[in-house]
């Protein structure tokens, strides 16, 4: 039943994938496991009918078809070939390059291969070395507010509580959702991460992930984390790189363009899916989340993920903080010349500290906004608008 319901949800990335396939020979869709990459690809394959073929490279029967990959792929010349977890067979990238270049000479330039992967660094490194100029990249996030909420606050809060992994969000009740997320975390730690190469004790990595959840949205204190885990600061950096690579953690860098200010240099770190934050902290329902100190950080991370997914292509994101107290939760540099300063508040009646206004002046913000948990959009004075999350997303789409 869950997947029947999920099949009715329109993923915003679908149109983008189709557009990229019309302009590039190969497209890579990146995202964590269980986020819906395969479902998206199979929908596309259904639309194309016999003009598409799907290969799951975790299945021996599908890998066997590629015992002579050049022969097999040349036989699919007029079809879109979809590879799931292609990074598991790195030798195929050279073959793809040769086929793409050969077809380019004969006139076919686009829509040949769709690559799905859950580890961005592996796939990016392998494709950048062999498919440069021949491939485009797209990240598929967990479900977004715009994809599941029809202006219902209850649905938005359910998405915030459970997170956007389809099986978690669409579970029959909160208990079933928590059970799925706990199993997801365990599978990542005990099977998926070791299969990618890193030999890190599962319990150590769980503690690290949980520590990040406790500090959701705060400045990373690598020394304190290292002391808590009994490892070196360099090891903490390696763990963080891994979680960022797996698209499970976001590392938001500080704005650094103003050389005349004493700026904070440490990044802020977010577990990207709010449902995983809550599961790691043992928060099983909305009341538990609202009563926990992580509430503000969890909401902030949830809003940031949705805002960045809605931002125009080419947008760059930072936060801003100085030693003198100027602070902005999110600074968006939107091409060609927009700079948005965004503060994020869980309150539905937000107020702003002096530090936000100082920060807006420092970064020369062209637009000032506070995103709150209410439903209305209104002016706060001094050029600041208070916007609901839905309102802010709509404004970003129009920018």
What does the model show?
It is a single chain. With 399 residues, this protein is an alpha/beta fold. It has two domains: 2-139, 3-Layer(aba) Sandwich (Rossmann fold); 145-398, no CATH class. 46% of the residues lie in helices and 17% in strands. The chain is built from 19 helices and 13 strands. The strands form three sheets. The protein has a six-stranded mixed beta sheet with strand order 8-9-10-11-13-12. The longest helix is centred in the middle third of the chain and has 22 residues, at 174-195. The radius of gyration is 22 Å and the shape is globular. It starts with a helix and ends with a helix.
- Strand content is 15-25%
Mean pLDDT: 90
Largest sheet: 6 strands, mixed
- How many E strands? 13
Count of folded domains: 2
Poorly predicted parts: none
Tell me the number of helical segments per DSSP (H or I, 4 or more residues long). Answer: 19
Order of strands across the biggest sheet? 8-9-10-11-13-12
Cα-to-Cα separation, first versus last residue: 38 Å
Query: What gross morphology would you assign?
Result: globular
What share of residues is helical? Answer: 40-55%
Q: How large, in whole angstroms, is the Cα Rg?
A: 22 Å
Indicate the structural class. alpha/beta
Helices and strands, with pairings:
Elements (H helix, E strand, L loop, with lengths): L1 H5 L6 H9 L4 E5 L6 H12 L3 E5 L3 H5 L4 H6 L5 E5 L7 H15 L6 E5 L2 H11 L4 E5 L5 H4 L4 H10 L3 H4 L4 H22 L6 H13 L7 H8 L3 H13 L3 E4 L15 E4 L2 H7 L5 H5 L4 H16 L5 E6 L5 E8 L3 E7 L9 H10 L3 E6 L5 E4 L2 E5 H10 L1
Parallel strand pairs: 1-4, 1-5, 2-3, 3-4, 10-11, 11-13
Antiparallel strand pairs: 6-7, 8-9, 9-10, 12-13
Helix pairs in contact: 9-15, 11-12, 11-15, 12-15, 13-14, 17-19
């Amino acid at each position: 039943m869950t997947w029947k319901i999920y099949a009715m949800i329109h993923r915003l990335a679908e149109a983008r994938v189709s557009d990229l396939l019309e302009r590039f020979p190969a497209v890579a869709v990146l995202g964590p496991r269980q986020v819906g990459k395969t479902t998206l690809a199979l929908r596309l394959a259904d639309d194309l009918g016999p003009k598409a073929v799907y290969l799951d490279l975790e299945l021996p029967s599908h890998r066997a078809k590629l015992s002579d990959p050049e022969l097999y792929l040349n036989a699919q010349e007029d079809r879109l070939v979809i590879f799931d977890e292609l990074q598991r067979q790195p030798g195929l990238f050279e073959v793809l390059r040769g086929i793409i270049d050969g077809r380019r000479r004969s006139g076919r330039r686009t829509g040949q291969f769709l690559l799905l992967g859950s580890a961005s660094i592996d796939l990016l490194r392998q494709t950048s070395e062999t498919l440069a100029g021949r491939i485009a990249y797209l990240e598929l996030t967990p479900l977004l507010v715009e994809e599941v909420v029809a202006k219902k606050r209850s649905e938005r809060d359910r998405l915030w509580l459970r997170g956007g992994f389809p099986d978690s969000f669409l579970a029959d009740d909160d208990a079933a959702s928590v059970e799925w997320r706990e199993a997801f975390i365990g599978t990542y730690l005990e099977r998926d991460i070791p299969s990618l190469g890193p030999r890190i004790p599962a319990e150590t990595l769980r503690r690290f992930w949980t520590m990040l959840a406790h500090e959701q949205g705060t400045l990373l204190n690598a020394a304190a984390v290292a002391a808590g885990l009994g490892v070196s600061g360099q090891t903490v950096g390696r763990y963080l790189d891994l979680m960022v690579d797996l698209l499970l953690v976001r590392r938001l860098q500080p704005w650094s363009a103003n050389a005349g200010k004493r700026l904070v240099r440490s990044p802020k770190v977010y577990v990207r899916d709010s449902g995983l934050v809550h599961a790691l902290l043992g928060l099983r329902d909305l009341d538990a989340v609202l009563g926990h100190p992580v509430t503000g950080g969890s909401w902030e991370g949830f809003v940031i993920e949705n805002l960045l997914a809605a931002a125009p292509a080419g947008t760059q994101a930072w936060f801003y903080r100085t030693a003198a107290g100027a602070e902005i939760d999110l600074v968006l540099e939107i091409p060609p010349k927009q700079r948005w300063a965004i503060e994020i508040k869980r309150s539905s009646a937000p107020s702003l500290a002096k530090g936000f206004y100082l920060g807006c002046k420092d970064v020369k913000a062209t637009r000032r906004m506070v995103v709150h948990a209410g439903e209305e959009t209104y002016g706060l004075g001094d050029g600041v608008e208070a916007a609901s999350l839905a309102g802010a997303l709509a404004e970003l789409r129009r920018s």
